[in-house]
Amino acid sequence: MDVTSFWLAGRPATGDETFSVTNPYDGRVVGEVAVPTEAQVEEAVAAADAVRAQAAALPVHVRAEALAHVSRRLAERSEEIARLITAENGKPLLWARAEVNRAVSVFRFAAEEARRWSPTTQRLDTDPGGAGRLAYVSRVPKGPVLGIAPFNFPLNLTAHKVAPAIAVGAPIVVKPAPATPLSALVLGEILAETDLPAGMVSVLPVPNDRAPALVDDPRLPVVSFTGSVPVGWAIRERAPRKHVTLELGGNAAAVVLADADLDWAATRIGLFSNYQAGQSCIAVQRVYVDRGVYEAFVPKLVEAVGSLVTGDPWDGATQVGPLVSTDAAERVESWVNEAVAAGAKVLTGGTRDGAVYAPTVLADVPADAKVLREEVFGPVLVVQPVDGVDEAFAQVNDSSFGLQAGVFTRSLDVAFRAHRELNVGGVIIGDVPSYRADQMPYGGVKDSGVGREGLHSAMSDYTEEKVMVLTGIDL
Hints:
Belongs to the aldehyde dehydrogenase family. It is an enzyme of class 1 (oxidoreductase). The chain is α/β, with parallel strands linked by helices. It has 16 helices and 25 strands.
């Protein structure tokens, strides 16, 4: 098998070692990836630091055209890249194709935002001392970005780090997840086709134990991390003088109120508790149903979950594939078994075959069970009855996480109340918390992280205001 190169300051390179990438469903090797040496990592970081001024001064049209080029090339190679995502991650082709399409949009949105990204002016003669003065306010890059991407959306969540960096003129060093580096490396290949300066983008598949050196490096003043809660907060504590954006975990809740369309709610919750095999920070994990419709709703939910097509990710009809590893599936299995031993009832699912865990619905789950309190990151949901809106919202907020929540209601008053009262980064009315438009602000509170992604939001995160005051202006 040919060795896949990494991307060092815009050019392909190999190191002294390689590692294998395996498919979670059948265990076969799908790629052999070169590992950068420490000297090569140093070269990449030094190149990003050396090009920072040139990158920041790039004309908008150069940045925008590079981003548009990536969007076009991802679209042209969409099926190839989707199959690569399925190969390395195990997600069904259904979702891999959707991920590529989202990445196409991310780079297109970034190109559009880059063209809109303009300085503002502010009159200062609102006070006599400011007569004849005008402030010109621009946003300038804080410096090169270290982007650390997760395994669950190996292309699109890498895109969410790379695209805003290019849009604002910030160099970026990407560290993909060791389990799923191949799609990020294809992105590096496509970026190398653009006219961006050498050194502006590097994609370095280094093992996790070498990431702290990158986090510590003062030449990378911005860190954008998506991943686990412990690692994310450890990065922030390790780099207190850096700008650190964290997109961490969640145990997303959906609320089904008495006025909801129960068939729609059951279908959406059933699918989006199990898409990506539940390996999404906003997959539905907790479902709170008004007691008045609980008995009518639960059979609909169980039927929706039980009808999902599970198994071979290469089959275009498959909706739920394997988790990223057998170890991950065994952990999910142990959490479910622990809940059942404490009194929970399995309404459907609850079985494992290798890395595939059957879509599972649990009821009567004890309040302290891991499947309720922590992030399962697997195809498991817990359904519970509640007495009205007050209890439902209290249950949603009774979590150490706060990424997104979904509320199925037809009431506009309840919708705005949810927006006011739910302690999360985003509230989705009439649908699951799993809904995300890539251009909107996205991020959480509490243990779900700090900062926001979404193109405009991330561009703001990567930059800071810089003011020039013009004096003696006849306004």
